[in-house]
Structure formats: structure tokens, C-alpha cells
Queue: 4 jobs
Job 1
Amino acid sequence: MIGNPLATPAQKAIEDRALRLLARPDLQRVRGVVTMLWQQVAGWPNRDQADRFANMIDEYMFHHAFRAANGDANHPEVARFMAPRHHWFGRDVRGSRWAGDSPDFIYRTVPIAHGGHYLIEGRATCADHPTVNWSLMADNTASPVTQALLDSLDMDIAPDGSFTLTIDDTPADGRRNHIQTKPGADFLMIRDALGDWQAQSPNALTVTRLNPTADPKSDDELAARAARIALDHVYYTYYCTQSGAGQAPNHIRPPMSSAAFGGMPTQAGTKGNLDLAPDRALIVRGNAAGARFRNLTLTDCYHMTIDYWARTSTLNMAQMLPDDDGDFTTVIAHRDPGVHNWLDTGGLRRCIFGQRWQGFRRDAENPEPWITVREVAFDDLPRELPDGVARIDAAGRQAQLSARAAGFARRFAEA
């Protein structure tokens, strides 16, 4: 990676604008309402994780302030959000995680309006290009609606990794790098899926609106939008949380398309509600299913990821090792089981489990994704695990954690 494609002047300006919006009295009042709504439905059920509530509200509010701060479709920018709190550009930046973030995705947003003509220019910043999903989302308050979806595996990309993408209200007519808007278009969600956190980095992107029709929006207009979406999305966010936490404990439902939940229609995913006593463990087995990208994630009861920069609370296909038979065994436990593929709960008895498969091969018949789960006593793991499971010693675990920390730090490098 030459420089950091995320450390742009536009990124800093939008973060500063979002922080400014949050300090306004009108958004402080909205924060109070959001806090009350969450407390009424989650305060008692989630009392065992009450110490995580304030940070969830902080990140929820910054997420929506950020989306509003980069919500002017006449003057769009490309900006990264859905990240934990961090320090860069000489100041602390709040986290903006929301509704079950993926630690392996670099999430970016671009405001889009139907009738606008947009040009996005991109270039690769690493030798092994990550797969990228471009989702055009509608302004629907009940649940996100994907109007159009483009996968980088289906795009024309030059040998040097450069490309252009057009977005407007005209049909593609054979253009592989084009997204057609529809009435209600609101923003483009970009997800660069990083497997190797140290070798891969997101594309460098710029956006231009070719037919702007208005001056930049005022802070009053942006704050009104932030207030509206922050209040409206309480209900959808709660649904996302309960779609995992509302299931029977320690069972994982079969994989299915994410479209019905406001996710990517081409992605297969599953969730589970975990409730593990200190002396218990879960053995999870699954297949690759021809997916170029896969990951397994644990989140807390508010669907917030669990310190994934410092512990193996998430694993992707580059961080996991297969069993001897080519499938994958993962152990979910509070203590290190000596297995390479360990999902660390961070000491939380209750977690939401998620797994996704995406970027399926285009040149072959792909097997259906599958997953199984079995609860066992932690002390019985040596005899309960299938043959051929990859093991790890203390030195190997430390190297694994050090690599995670270094890879995460690259995302916030300023040079």
C-alpha cells in the first residue's frame, strides 16, 4: 500500500462536520430520545452488558451524523464509516459501528440522487485486489432497500487495477461499470472486503457529480437529516439485533440470502444467538462453498463487534486454517482452546454469531454453503473435535494477535 487511500482531506472534513452536527442542541435532544427508546426495549434484557450501552449510543449517533454530513448528493464525497473509535489527524474520532458491522469490510458511502450523473474513478492500492460490492441504497426508513448491486468480479478493471464507474438514470446497455438509479436513490454503500489485513488495502476512490444543481447544504439541513435517520433507524437496528439474539440459544440457522434483511442479495449469511456458560464451548463446522470471501463474527448483545483488533473475535478465510478434509472447524469459547480457529467471546456470556459467504466463483458450479454447530463441555474438546483440526501454541497465538493489531493499525495510518 502506497499511502493510505482512506486518509483523505474529504474524510477529515466530513468527520469534523459530523462532530460539529452532534454538538448541536437539536441533535443532543435526539440523542436523548434515541437513548430512551433503546433503554425501554433493551435495558432489562441486556442488563448483563449494561457497561457497553453508552458506547453503543455514542457510535449509533455518530454513524447517523456521519451519513448526514456526507449526505449532499449535489456535492458528494467518498468517506469511510462503520469503524471503531480511533485517533488520527490529531484528534479522537468516535466510532460509527451499527447493526452488525464486519471487521473485514472497509465501508464507504457516497450520496446519490436520482437524476444526478456521477463518475467514480478508482485505482488499486495493493497487488491482491480485494473484492468490492457497490450497493445503491434507497431512502427507505423501514428497512434499507438495495436498488442496484454491482460486484467487482463482474466489472471491467484495467491490468493496473484502475477503473471508472458511472451512475445515472440511464440503462447500462452493455456497460459493465454502470449503475442505473431509480426514484428514491439515497446513497452508494461500498464494501471493500479485506482478507489479508496486512497485504490488502481498499481502492483509492474519487467521485464527481457531473450535473450539480444546487449550492452545498447548510448545517441546518444536514442536522435535520441526521435527526430523521437517527430516529427512524432505531427500529431497524433493533430488528437487526433481534434477528440474531431472538433465536433459541446455541443454534445457528441455515444460510440464506441477505436481501430480506437489507443486506447484499448476492451474499449468503447466517446468524445465531449464543449463550455460553464458562465451562462450555461450541464447535462450528462449515464449508467454503466457492466463496472468494468468507468471515465469522461475534458481536455483543447490541450487535457491536468485540475488540477485533486485539482478540480473535472474528476470523476470515485468510485468517483461518482448513481441516485436513478441506472444510473448516472453529471453536467458540471464553478460553483459548489451543485451536487455530478460535472465536474469542471477550468474556461475554451472550453473543450474536454471524457468518457470511460472498464473491462466489463465476466459472464453476458452487456447492451450497452449510454450517453445523454442537455444544460441548470445554474440557471435552480434545475428544469431541474432529480429526485434522489445525492447532496452535502460545507463541503462534501471540503472532496471530500481533498480525491483527498491525493490520488494523494500517487502516488509520495518516501517511
Note: The two ends are 10 Å apart (CA to CA).
Job 2
Amino acid sequence: MTVSKLSIDDVVRRIGEIGIVPVVRASSVEEANRAVEAICAGGIGSVEITMTVPNAVSVIREIVQQRGKDVLIGAGTVTNAAQAEACILAGAQFLVSPGLSGAVLAEAKNHSILAIPGALTPTELMSAQEHGATLVKIFPCGNVGGAKYLKSLKAPFPKAMLIPTGGVNTANAADFIAAGAFALGVGADLVDAAALREGNLEKITNAARELVNAVTSARAALKAKKAS
């Protein structure tokens, strides 16, 4: 299947609309495929396959061929230019890194692909912006104060489009949205490793549905608050 390439603006828009970037870490190609299937069944149209998955590039290529027409597929834990190029050639529509790599951002720019660097502190966020990053992943957000930390970070950077990751789940999704999150990066709290290993895809699908509902409700409440 030929997947038409989206522009960076289109990818940013879709991530914003979906509001959730599920982080898929799995122990095998089969597990990764099952995780993507369960996530999509729960109504989330995007996934991030991390480079920690065995044969991650092959997994990305396969999932792009199978689902790339309907699902936004990214590569995660991309830490160097060689990984970035391999993921892009496999069809990844965006790249996510745990920290800031100028080489990854440059490689992505060469291919007109969105790269989302990781940052935690105000200094790191400023550096990411200086490197031209449109979206920035705030990681590990849950370990340094969660939604309260994100709100504090947004105060001096009100226009920054931030994706908190690490410790984000259905229970606190509304708090992160209210704090100004552009989208939420969700890993183990959505893609339960034990459920995946046992083939209990329904648990992951149900978790995806609950997360979608939480984000939708939180955004509606925020919109209503701004309108009042």
C-alpha cells in the first residue's frame, strides 16, 4: 500500500486533533502489531513505535504498509541521525526523542518530517525552540510534578505546544489538558505489558477508549470555561 506523505503542518494538526500519542514498547514484532491493533480499536488514530522494540524499523515499515493510510505512525526513542534516517525511510511520519538531538532534528528537516525533541527544564525547552522544534515532549513529566509542573512551564512559554509524557494516564489526563497540554504521550498506562503478553487486547482497547473520552471531555470543559 502506498502511503501519501503528509506535510509537517498536517502531522502537527493531526496530533493535536487526536490529542494522544500512544507509546508502544513491546518485546516482539507480534506484540507490537497486537498493541497497534488494540489501540486503533479503542479509537486512537496514532502510535509511536519506540526504537527499543526488537527490529523496530521493520515493525514501523510493516505497520505503515498495513495501517499507514488511516493511522499516524511515528518512531520513538530516536537518539541519532542514523536511526532517524532509517525510521523515515521505513515510512515513519514523525520522530520523537527523549532529549534534544540537533542531528535528529537536522535529519528530519532534510526529509521534511516532523521531529519532536524531548525537554524537561525551561533551558532545555528554549534550546529546543532555538533548534526550530514545533512540538516538544516534556519528559519525564510525572516525576517532577505532573500537571502542576506543566502549568508552571507554560506560564513563561504560553505559545509552546507541549506533549507531557511519563506518568500520564486516564486519571490525570484532564489535569494535563487543563494545564495546557497540546497532546498527551501515554505509555505503560495505556499499553499494559502484562495484558499485551497475555494477549488481553480488550484491556488495552478499553483503556484507549477511556483515555479518548477523558481527553474529549477535558477539552470540552476547557472550551466551555474559556467561552464563559
Note: The chain has ten helices and nine strands.
Job 3
Amino acid sequence: MLRHLVLGFSFLACIGCASVETVHVDIDASPKEDPKQASVLEKTLGENGYYYLLLNYKLVDDVPQIHRLQKLGTRLTHYSERPEIEYKYLIIDSKYHTAFSFPDGYIVFSTAMLNSLASDEKILCVLAHEIAHITHRHGVYFYEAKFGLNKSEVTGERAFSLATQLGYNRAFELQADQTALRYLYRAGLDPQTFIDSLRQLEHFEKEDESLYQDDVKAGILKENRKNDLLERLSYPHLQNRIVYCQNILPEIKQTEKVLYNPNDFQF
């Protein structure tokens, strides 16, 4: 079966100059438990990505929504392998649907994505996937494949590009999906909702494509700047991800336990 293979994929590293890197990922591997704080490299990537976002995009100071994200996120991170990380939730003002994460606990939603996910359950699904990227240290792994352990190469732009391009690595996505399903199940949620959320992303992508083409025709933006401006960030491999999640869901229900206890959370 697909999930028992160690998958190695080449991906386009859109950080600085373009080049092709090969990353080998065992999609069955769980995040490593680590009682220590994030590494210096992980913290540097997260902080630099955050400051780049702060300088180049409009952050929305919506206290109730941020509190909502914190409350929902805690329900998942409490049962993750890295609950000691301080997760930070940010909202950017954008009519395009996107969500991504920086190393060391930064999770970003666009206003369009947050407003279109009508229920807490759907938001939890997106959060679970982004938290999984962080607990697996995918951003750090991506950076090391490109630059090694050289922290001097870390810039805000590179950290930002890294975060928004993680989804183009198929192995990272499948591994994050599997872990997200496990987090949702541990937190007492129906992981089937995650598969429904993936199908919803297909609709978001079509909406964003239409908006993007309208903006290009209106001269609001240039087509070759779409990634830099967070426009039309696509969701690659969606069909493969849906099939993969459907196949692995029965095993997750057999091997995981519901750990959720409302008394664990005080807000």
C-alpha cells in the first residue's frame, strides 16, 4: 500500500534562487517527542518569517477570532507530541483563501479562509494540518535540505517563501494529513470532517482562481507576483490526499484512542 512506502519526492525550492532538492520522508513516522524548546534554527525561521509577514502584510487585530483560534488550537496541541511549543495565531487581511505555518508555532489564516470555514470543526481541521507541519518540523527539514544548518542564510523572505511552499511537497502533505487525523481523533472529533474539508478546498481554489483572473484583468496585480502577494495559493495533490485519508482512516480509528477531556482546558 502507498502508506507503507518511504516516499522521496523532488520539489521546487522557491526560496531565493530556484533549485530542485530531494527530501525523503517516511509518511508513517510520527512527530518526535521533544521535552525541550525549539532549536535555535527553528526559532530563527519562525521569528524571521513572522517579522517579514508583519512588514509586508496587513495583520487583523481581531481579538475574539484570535482567542477562538487559540482555544481550538489548544484542544489539538494538548494531545500532540510537542505541547510545550507556544503557538501563535495570526490573521492576515486577504480575500484569498489560505492558511500556512512557520516553524516554532506560528499559524496564519487569511480572513477569507477563516470567514469561509463556518464551523469550529472545519477550522480545527485546518489547524490540525498546520500544527502537524510544526510538530513534524517540516519547515526546518525543508530549510536544511536547501541551506544546511547555516542560520546566517535565514531571511524573513526565505522563511516566508518556505512556509507558503510547504504544500507543494507531496510527502510533507501526506504525513501532515495522517498526523492531523490522529490529532482530531485524540481530541474527540470526527476525523471524517477532515476529508470533507479537503473537498471544500477544491471550491476555494476555484473561487480564488476567478478572483485572481479578475484582478489581473483589472491591473490590480501582475501575474508573476502571485506567490509573493499570497494570491491564489493553490492546494496541490488534493485528490491524492483525499484518497489517502480515506484509506488510512479505518486504521487510525483502530489504533488511536479518544483522549479528550473538557476538564483539561480552562479558558
Note: The first strand starts at residue 6 and ends at 13.
Job 4
Amino acid sequence: MTLAEQLECLRRGTAEIITEAELFSKLEQYRPLVIKAGFDPTAPDLHLGHTVLLRKLRQFQDLGHKVIFLIGDATALVGDPSGQSKMRKRMTWDEVEGNADTYVNQVGKILDVRDPAKFQMVRNSRWFVGADRSRGGFPPFTFETLVDLTSRYTVARLLERDDFQKRMKAGQEVSMLELFYPLMQGYDSVQIAQGHNGHCDVELGGTDQKFNLLVGRDLQRAYGQEPQVVITMPLLEGTDGVQKMSKSLGNHIGINEPPGEMFGKLMSIPDTLIVKYFTLLTDVETSRIAELERQLNERAVNPRDAKADLAVELVTRYHDAAAARQAKAEFFKVFSQRQPPSEMPAVTLTAGPDGAVNLVELLVAQGLSKTKNDARRLLRQGGVKLNGTVLTRPSLPLAESAGVLQVGSRHFRKLLPALRLH
């Protein structure tokens, strides 16, 4: 690729590059750039929202650059205030480490993790939690280091942050710990540069990370380093079409989810997200995506078909083509032909002394509703079926409970009655 073509490739899907001129200048040096992105392990497993950054990192790798996949285990203990209307709940080391392990096992689905010239995984606890030089070349973080770091930035600059301004105007507290978070993230860039011949060339993050990323530029200047280029990526809305994809909100699509589950969730996204998902999550050419957008706007293509193409693309990427074909066939069998899936979890039922199965307790136990009140609401609204017949009562005689239980449009269980309890 020419430099202009490389820049065009890297520009795809980005929200902002600060600055393109600096990025072009770095590319002109014809050396492997050091590209950093940090991921705080605040929840287990990677989802499609994470892959927006990971795919951009892979583009840099494919152009010959080195990616630093930084696991923010130390910063996760502090809690990123970005987009938060109140202070985060503090996490424990055990929680953070458990979540981080799942990231380590999944990142190889997107990044080239085998070539040390293109990939390095680093945990920022290596410099924030007293790790010595023998464990990776980073000096320990001491009180003297803290004094030096905090002397290089002002409280006034930190309080300019929009998140903090909104909270203070609303009478919400902002902790000293939260003020320290942007400094920690910026210090990560300083440390990466010190371990790579003074270079931490580019840092990627979501649009909600812009303040933190710019603090990194400022701190690099303060430490006499060349400032990093900042690239922000759009935040990916989840299946609800409103909130940023998040496991805690239940609107996520995990990259390790079974093919059928992934396919079904992708088919449930709002039509308005089809083009954005294609742009940020696939390698489909921009010209084809532009044509698809035109066809969707003119109603020349059924959004359901476009989502099926998207689902096949992504299930193939994170599983394989055979799994994608099977998931598509199963989906249309269930939703178009109104047939139960070929495979579903089996549940062996028992009844109480009255000879009945408590459906409310069954729905909660199977994870088909969050609470008993939620289960009762599903029953009242006709969201529960047995062999195609809507169930409204909270219990069912054991003798009548065999067959396929359906909750909503996507959840099925095969019910197998057992002996009555006495």
C-alpha cells in the first residue's frame, strides 16, 4: 500500500484522529509503530463492542506495526469514570484477575498473537504494583513516582472533564481516586514508550475515552516523549439499539457465544444498526456497504435479509462457515417455519405434593426470567408456550407438562416429567 492508501485503510470507521497529519508523519518514517489500546477487565469475556478496537489494532498489525494489548488490571481497581454518572463500585483483585484471564484466552481470535514483533500483552500492574525490573524491564511505582507524576498535571485540567462537570452540577461526588484514573492511563503510555525506545506512537479508545487519551499526550510531552496520535472509535450500541454494548446491561453479543445464540442476537438488532455493524465489525468493502445503505433507505432490500448476511459473516468469523450455515438454517426453521429447534436443553421435571409443576420457579431456575415477578409477567402477557399453546397459569399438572417449552421467541427447553415428589 502507498502511505495514502494505508491512511485511508486506518481511517475507516474512526470517529476522530488527533491528528491525521501526525499519523501520516509517523507512517512516513517507515518503521514499525507502537500501537497501544487498554482494556480494563471489569467484566468477563470479550463481546462485539470490544472487537471494534481489536479490529482496528489488527489493521495496524497487517500493515506491519506492533500492538500493545494492555490489560488494565490496576486501573480496573480504580474504575474508569468515563460516561459514569456516579462512582463505580470498587472491584477486588480476584474479580479483576478472573476477568483478565478470559480476555487472554479470547484475544487471539482477532489479533495475531504469535509474532512477538507484532504483539505484546502487558498488564499495567507491572508498574503500578511494585513489580521490579527483573519481571519485565519496568521500574517499581513508588511514592516518589507518584509525587513526580501528579506534579506534571493540574487539578484544574482534570476538572474540565465533562463527566465531572455534569456530576458536580448535579451534586454528585467525584472521588480523588477518579481524578487519578486519567493520570494512570496516561502514565501507561509513558511506560510503554520507555520500554520501546521512546515510542508509544498511537493509542486507540472509544469516543468516551477521548479525555483520558489526550491526558496521555500531555503526559508524554511532560516526560519529554513524542506525543501519541489519538484515534477514537465509535461506541457500538448493543442489541437494544440504545445503550453502549455491555454485559452488565444484558445487551451484549459475546464472541465466545454458541453460533445459534450469536446468530439469533444479531437478527434481533434494530434495523438502524445494520450499516454501523457492517462498517465496524466486518471487512465488507465500503462501496458494498454504501450500496446496502442505499437499498435499505429505498426499501429495495429486506432488513431481515441484510441482518442474516451480517450474522453469517460474524458467526463465520468467530466460529466457522459450517456453524454459520447451521445457525442460519435453525433460525429460519424456528422463526419463519414456527418449528422448534433441532437441539435444546432438556429439563427433567418433578412435582410437588399437589402433583403440579411450579412454572414460576421453573422459569427462574432455568434462567428464562430474572425474578419470580418477571416470570409471572411473562405468563400474564402470553410469553410462555408449551407445545405451541400459551400458558397463563403459574403451575401445570405434571402429567400435562411434557414437550417443548418456549419463552419469548428465542428460548426453548425440552421438558421431561419425572416421578412425583411425596
Note: Residues 131-137 have pLDDT under 50 and may be disordered.
